[in-house]
Amino acid sequence: MKPARIPEILTSPHHWAQLRWGEYYRDALEEQLRPWLGKMFGFHLLKIGNLSAEVNTEACAISHQVNVALQGEHLQVNADPLHLPFAAKSVDACLLAHTLPWCPDPHGLLREVDRVLIDDGWIVLSSFNPISLLGLGKTVPFLRKRAPFNSRMFTPMRQFDWLSLLNFEVMYRRSFQVLPWHKQGGRLLSTHLPALGCMHVIVARKRTLPLTLNPMKSRKAKNQIRSAVGATRQYRDSVKVPRRPADSPHPHE
């Protein structure tokens, strides 16, 4: 398995149109995200990367949406995604539409997203599936240097491991668009053979486990009431009640 972090600087496309069949990819991705965007609430949504900026997120209830990338068009913030200029736990959701495939340090990018996300915040990842027709295209020499074949393709299981290490709970995962050159992606094949889809999407939520003791619970544990049975036994052993004559086993003595 190749390391996730590489020294090379990758140049990501600024528009979906720069990818072969890119507009089909964007339409298919928007169709997959539409049911989940309506479930996201909050104040701030970050769309990290130029391709994320072109994804239609009008169905999302979060009104303040900010496009972030190092350079490109339709951006509100020009910044390196590996060093986001936002405070910790200040963002409600992050969209990374095909941002990982052209990132030299995907681990660092996910850690930075985890830093700015609030507890129970949302993260949406989309990428190319190496076990697909696009993955086979990377084996062809004259296609390797063309987009999207020049991108890095990580298996879904590898991305699940990265998210689990950061304590994200995967809410939805799906592979789709089996036929990349078809506008519908081959609906029949995508229904029966989704594992061969050229694209993969993951919707996850940040979960935070409490690592400190709850003071209310610790106080209740200290103030436990002793057993009543033990207290009665102790009282009977210390206090001896004199026996009355009627209680004597030899009444005539």
TrEMBL record:
<feature type="region of interest" description="Disordered">
    <location>
        <begin position="220"/>
        <end position="253"/>
    </location>
</feature>
<dbReference type="InterPro" id="IPR013216">
    <property type="entry name" value="Methyltransf_11"/>
</dbReference>
<dbReference type="GO" id="GO:0008757">
    <property type="term" value="F:S-adenosylmethionine-dependent methyltransferase activity"/>
</dbReference>
<feature type="compositionally biased region" description="Basic and acidic residues">
    <location>
        <begin position="234"/>
        <end position="253"/>
    </location>
</feature>
<protein>
    <recommendedName>
        <fullName>Methyltransferase type 11 domain-containing protein</fullName>
    </recommendedName>
</protein>
<feature type="domain" description="Methyltransferase type 11">
    <location>
        <begin position="76"/>
        <end position="125"/>
    </location>
</feature>
<dbReference type="Pfam" id="PF08241">
    <property type="entry name" value="Methyltransf_11"/>
</dbReference>
<dbReference type="InterPro" id="IPR029063">
    <property type="entry name" value="SAM-dependent_MTases_sf"/>
</dbReference>
